[in-house]
Design a protein that fits this description.
By secondary structure, the protein is an alpha/beta fold. The protein has two domains: 32-127 and 258-326, Bordetella uptake gene, domain 1 (D-Maltodextrin-Binding Protein, domain 2, 3-Layer(aba) Sandwich), CATH 3.40.190.150; 129-257, 3-Layer(aba) Sandwich (D-Maltodextrin-Binding Protein, domain 2), CATH 3.40.190.10. Helix content is 45%, strand content 19%. It is built from eleven helices and ten strands. Strands 1, 2, 3, 4, 5, 6, 7, 8, 9 and 10 form a ten-stranded mixed sheet that branches. Helix 2 packs across helix 9 (270-284) and helix 4 packs parallel to helix 11 (306-326). It is globular, with a radius of gyration of 23 Å. It starts with a helix and ends in a 6-residue tail after the last helix.
Length: 332
């Protein structure tokens, strides 16, 4: 009995050692084939632009071509699930944000994965959020908007805010705005930013807390909409024409942005994660990448060591879950 047990233990140990060596060998040769960035939205949008700004430089740093693949649907969860169903070898990298990996599982009951099923390797860029208002809204500052919204609510005519869908980051921002000001507001969900923006320009919705693009500078100048503020803690040179939300009295702490990063499955071998992290970090230092992101009004992420990246993701998950809970977000 003891001899059989010892033999079985030796066999098990040999098997484990073999698997460890195989995983180590695969990790050390990473990447041995082209790497795919999976973008959870159709081609042509801001997410697609980020991927195609980054992929050539990232490919040079990895020593393999980096292909961009677009797979939209279900708030990004279809693409996210594809990554989870693929091998944990780093050949399929998910380009994601809190929208797909933190909020979508809270908003859509059909989604079964959790934020913790993914590991953030490195952040790439941060989008600034603009406080947009329809052109004929009789306000010119955030504080004037708050006063207007309060009076309108008392008259039974609550202001409306657009979002790109229930449970989206922009839905949460609107609900949080209503909560911190203690002013009832009506959520108007759209299927995307384009139709929401179209209705804002047409005056069918009052405000839209949206990712900033340079097109809003011209639309503001020509009087087609108003940029009341940027949800930044300080006024930035890239958007110096607009006040930071911190310059208001009523909403000086209402600062938000949304970041985009590269993710892999949580059980991806550590050497693979380290190699990918190193390549992404080198890519962020590429002047061409920096200029491409800046041209689209994106802030290039400050590279972080792996341990710090993990904390950012954990903290972000906790923050968004707390906001979702505070506004009583219900999965649909």
């Amino acid at each position: 009995m003891h001899i059989q047990l010892a033999s079985s233990l030796r066999s098990l140990s040999a098997m484990v050692a073999s698997l460890v060596l195989a995983a180590s060998a695969a990790a050390q040769s990473y990447p041995s084939k082209p790497v795919t960035i999976l973008v959870p939205y159709p081609a042509g949008g801001l997410s697609d632009v980020i991927a195609r700004t980054v992929n050539t430089s990232l490919g040079k740093n990895l020593g393999q071509p980096v292909i961009v693949d677009n797979l939209g649907g279900a708030s990004g969860s279809i693409a996210a699930q594809k990554v989870l169903n693929a091998p944990s070898d780093g050949s399929l990298v998910f380009q994601g944000s809190p929208n797909e990996l933190i909020l979508a599982p809270l908003a859509l009951s059909a989604i079964k994965f959790k934020s913790e099923d993914f590991r953030l390797v490195q952040m790439i860029a941060t989008a600034q959020i603009a406080f947009l208002a329809r052109a004929d809204l009789p306000v010119n500052t955030v504080d004037e908007f708050v006063d207007y919204a309060r009076k309108a609510a008392k008259q039974g005519k609550a202001v409306t805010f657009a979002s790109v869908g229930p449970g989206s980051f922009y839905h949460l921002l609107g609900e949080q705005l209503s909560k911190v000001t203690d002013i009832p507001m009506v959520h108007v969900p759209y299927k995307g930013a384009a139709p929401a923006e179209q209705d804002l320009l047409g005056g069918q919705v009052d405000i839209f807390l949206a990712p900033y693009g340079k097109k809003y500078l011209e639309l503001n100048k020509t009087g087609k909409l108003k940029v009341l503020a940027m949800l930044n803690p300080t006024r930035l040179d890239s958007v110096k024409d607009f006040p930071a939300i911190s310059e208001s009295k009523a909403l000086k702490d209402f600062t938000f942005n949304i970041w985009t990063g590269y993710f892999v499955k949580k059980d991806t071998p550590e050497p693979v994660v380290v190699a990918l992290h190193k390549a992404i970090t080198e890519t962020l230092a590429d002047p061409t990448v920096h200029a491409g992101l800046e041209a689209n009004s994106l802030l290039t992420a400050q590279p972080l060591p792996l341990a710090a990246v993990g904390k950012v993701y954990a903290d972000g998950t906790a923050q968004f879950r707390a906001i979702a809970k505070s506004i009583n977000l219900q999965a649909q």
